[in-house]
Amino acid sequence: MTRPLTFAIPKGRILDEALPLLAKAGIEPEAEFHDKKSRALRFATNRPDVSIIRVRAFDVATFVAHGAAQIGIVGSDVVEEFNYSELYAPIDLDIGHCRLSVAEPAGSADEDEAALSHVRVATKYPHLTRRYYEARGLQAECVKLNGAMELAPSLGLSRRIVDLVSSGATLKANGLVETSVIMPVSARLIVNRAAYKMRSADLTPLVEAFRAAVEVKDAA
Ligand SMILES: Nc1ncnc2c1ncn2[C@@H]1O[C@H](COP(=O)(O)OP(=O)(O)OP(=O)(O)O)[C@@H](O)[C@H]1O
Ligand SMILES: O=P(O)(O)OC[C@H]1O[C@H](OP(=O)(O)OP(=O)(O)O)[C@H](O)[C@@H]1O
Fold this sequence. Notes:
Blueprint: E1 5-10, H1 14-24, E2 42-44, E3 50-55, H2 57-65, E4 71-75, H3 76-82, E5 87-92, E6 98-105, E7 118-123, H4 126-134, E8 139-144, E9 160-165, H5 169-173, E10 176-185, E11 187-192, H6 193-198, H7 200-219
Parallel strand pairs: 1-3, 1-4, 7-8, 7-9
Antiparallel strand pairs: 2-3, 4-11, 5-11, 6-9, 6-10
The structure holds adenosine-5'-triphosphate (ATP) and 1-O-pyrophosphono-5-O-phosphono-alpha-D-ribofuranose (PRP).
């Protein structure tokens, strides 16, 4: 038998929505996967040819881009931030909907950006942030954070943040307002391009199973 396929899924908030899709595509992780106390990171599934690894959202893209995992599920925010040429993202899974936005303290959002040459921004997304501001003729100096970006303005780290927004509750609770939307975000199925060519007989039916699972969900 060829080596099993390794499927990378994020342990954060996409996971709950991803599991029903995985099941519709015919993949069910072993019981230990659901045991919160388990320290295992790799799990068997009902399919002997597929195992699952559970890693941080940004690391899903890295594992798949390097071919350590052949297939995965990750937000389009992560796909775009890394922009790995080795990643093929054939399917929008229609889960994990949110947006990547700029936010500032309420009441200070009327500063004229046209008068500035450079902005300081706290973010987990320095590449997308720089790209967004460059397109507006501004240089962005990014302070990289891995979470809790919303604290940065009140503590004087940066006036602006670029972060994910869904309900807006986190911004509101921290006295911030959304000033621009950089991009809408949803979760994608990602495949390593080289693996997709070399192991097409294994990967193509799996990709098509996800396409069908999303179509069934959309029709419901
Ligand atoms: N508020 C949200 N609503 C919907 N989807 C979101 C929201 N926040 C994040 N996501 C999606 O879920 C993915 C993982 O986000 P999550 O916040 O679970 O990860 P994290 O905890 O920041 O990552 P890590 O595991 O590295 O700590 C994001 O990349 C994005 O695509
Ligand atoms: O607009 P809202 O509905 O409030 O959602 C936005 C929040 O969700 C995400 O964080 P998450 O809760 O996943 O935690 P994190 O800080 O660990 O990324 C994001 O980073 C925001 O902080």
